[in-house]
Amino acid sequence: MRLVHNLDEEAWRAFVTGHPAGNIFHSPEMTRVFAQAQGYDPAIWAVLGAEDEILALFLPVQITILDNLFLRRLTTRAVAYGSVLSAPTAAGQQALDLLLRAYNREMKSRLLFTELRNLEDLSDVQPVLAANGLAYEDHLNFLIDLTRPAAEIWGAVRSNAQRNIRKAQKAGVDIVEVEDLPALAEAYAVLQQVYRRIQVPLPDESLFRAAFEHLRPRGMFRVLLACVEGRGIGALTLLLYKGVMTYWYTGTLREFWSFRAGDLLVWTALELGQAHGMHTFDFGGGGKPDEEYGVRDFKAKFGGNLVNYGRNICVHAPLRLNVSQMGYQLLRRFL
Asked: How many whole angstroms separate alpha carbon 22 and alpha carbon 42?
């Protein structure tokens, strides 16, 4: 076995496509998107076998909020948005262990923490993750089965959400798909206002432009814009891969809250996913089960299956992380 940081793209793509747990965040295309986004620095960690077959794949993305030499040490973390991927064999687990041990040695002084966002049940590799300092935490999500008849999907939507969807339609909310960069900029401007209001950092616009450039031509990225009289009041970005449509960044303007555009955006996405042959709608996370989370309440209205695949987190620099968390709470006042 040997550890590598470069892969033949065709072999990489074939490994992800053929693996049951392979998702869009494991793809070469998504890595290319992150590479072109300001504040993001993706890396390739893989282990190859004797015949150069891929046995384990790990694609952490280093994220820095403040690009200052000193502040980078207090704000840089790594997120593996699709978690780890390994061959479902003893050799695959051995390769994953080799990979993570090497990663921890190299990164322990450079990052605050590394987080794996599990999109599948990874019970089989949890012992390997735990042995390498990646502690498991519960984290919920909702998955909607799009293979059912449309009437059945609609019937699973709670009555209050159904009313909101009808209200948005009657109020004249139009959902249009973004087809060009000026419309993408309009959608991003909506997201900026929303994330500024809720005091959460929003990725730089370059992330969405890169997704539009690299993913959209392959049918892997779509953006929906909710409009009232030609003005954008809500936006929803979607990732599509291997039959899964993933709810990505979204938001609606508070002053247009009564139009219920958020509910209509989700329903339109469900219809779009079904029309394009998607089998699953992934709501992209529902928070921790022991914490109140308004976003989870919103997502629950659409009748998805509640799952708990969790996340795994390794804290590399506990003291710096404590300082960073205190600083982040202060920074949020100015976002």
From this structure: 17
User: Shortest CA distance to 248 belongs to which of 313, 202, 197, 183?
Assistant: 202
For residue range 6-60, what is the model confidence (pLDDT) as tens digits? 999 999 999 999 999 999 999 999 999 999 999 999 999 999 999 999 999 999 9
CA-closest candidate to residue 11, choices 51, 42, 43, 41 = 51
Report which DSSP code applies to 291. S
- The span from the CA of 95 to the CA of 55, in Å, is 6
CA gap 260, 266 in Å, rounded: 11
**129-152: pLDDT as tens digits:** 999 999 999 999 999 999 999 999
| β-pair type (305-308, 280-282) | unpaired
The reply to whether the predicted model has a pTM over 0.70 is: yes
Residue 115, phi then psi, degrees to nearest 5: -125, 130
pLDDT, residue 71, reads 54
Tokens 């709501």 belong to: 283
H or E element, residue 3: strand 2-4
Helices (H), the chain: 9-18, 28-35, 69-75, 90-107, 126-131, 150-156, 159-170, 181-198, 205-214, 261-275, 294-300, 318-331
Q: Based on the number of CB atoms within 10 Å of its own CB, is 221 exposed (0-12), middle (13-18) or buried (19 or more)?
A: buried
Q: Give me the sign of the Cα torsion angle 13, 15, 18, 23.
A: negative
Cβ atoms of 168 and 263 closer than 8 Å: yes
Handedness of CA 67, 72, 74, 77 (dihedral sign): positive
- Residue 108's φ and ψ, nearest 5 degrees, are -60, -25
Structure tokens at 12: 């990489």
Burial label, 115 (beta-carbon count in 10 A; 0-12, 13-18, 19+): buried
For 277-316, give one letter per residue: b (16+ CB within 10 A) or e.
Answer: ebebbbbbbbbbeeeeeeebeebbbbbbeebebbbbbbbb
Q: How far apart are CA 44 and CA 16, in angstroms?
A: 14
Residue type for 264, please?
Answer: L
Ramachandran sector of residue 28 (left: φ over 0; alpha: ψ -120 to 50; beta: rest): alpha
What is the residue whose two structure tokens read 């690299």? Answer: 214
149: its two tokens: 């008849």
